[in-house]
Amino acid sequence: MIDSHCHLDHEPLLENLNEVIKRSKEVGISKLLTICTTPESFDRIKKIIITDPMIYGTFGIHPHETEKSHLIDKNYITNQVNQNERIIGIGETGLDFFYNHSNKERQIDSFKAHIEASIELNMPIIIHSRNAEDETYEILKSYKSEKLKILMHCFTGSLNFANKLIELNAFFSASGIITFKNSLELQETFKSIPLDKLLVETDSPFLAPIPMRGKKNEPSFIKYTLEKLSILKDKTIQEMSDLTTQNFNKLFNL
């Protein structure tokens, strides 16, 4: 299994990192991708990725943080990534018009800078999209490069959005949300996404899956999301584990 999106630099994961890694290995996780959200987050991630060879990282500015990071452009992003071979993705970036913690235009400018950096570096871009389906799709569609590798993190979008993104060759990561009782529509959407475009993630320490709701999420809980996804796709857990692992390694060229 591979947890394609976790935040190991957030508490309580950071202060218990050795135990978190140990429990991850015990359930059969082979790789963890810890995701950057701010420059300060990246400083912590650079230290985390050297603690164990199973851990990889990304560089990106979360849409909530773009107001505070207005000087970060394509060149800044590429320079940060080029300094470390264990940084394998760009993000978390994207658009969040639900909370609007940052100005919409600033979010869009930042998103485009990340896309352009990902194309230049030939690395996947990890996208957060909330209440911004049309804008996210139109921006992605405007880039014609074959080097654009899209990963929709914690996908909760509509079936229509998923179908349009599939045309752009996007990958989709299922989080613990697919285990929630009120996520029937999302479960149906995941039934329609091709097997070769699926990954799994925890987004830990957030979004703990059933039956761990109410606890701080951690990578070892990914087994519950994988189990639910295997049911939705009519596969065994081992088959789904193998498929999502292969898809991750293919997308990130590992």
What report would you give on this structure?
The protein contains nine helices and eight strands. It has 254 residues and is an alpha/beta fold. It has one domain (2-251): Alpha-Beta Barrel (TIM Barrel). An eight-stranded parallel β-sheet has the order 1-2-3-4-5-6-7-8. Helix 3 crosses helix 4 and helix 8 crosses helix 9 (237-251). The two termini are 14 Å apart. The relative contact order is 0.15.
Rounded to the nearest angstrom, the radius of gyration is 17 Å
Largest sheet entry: 8 strands, parallel
One letter per element, helices H and strands E, the order comes to EHEHEHEHEHEHEHEHH
What is the CATH fold-level name? Answer: TIM Barrel
The coarse silhouette is globular
List keywords for this structure.
about 250 residues; TIM Barrel; 8-stranded parallel sheet; about 40% helix
Task: Set out the fold topology.
Layout: E1 2-6, H1 17-26, E2 31-34, H2 39-48, E3 55-59, H3 74-82, E4 87-96, H4 104-121, E5 124-130, H5 133-141, E6 149-152, H6 159-167, E7 171-174, H7 184-192, E8 198-200, H8 222-232, H9 237-251
Parallel strand pairs: 1-2, 2-3, 3-4, 4-5, 5-6, 6-7, 7-8
Helix pairs in contact: 3-4, 8-9
Short description:
By secondary structure, this protein is an alpha/beta fold.
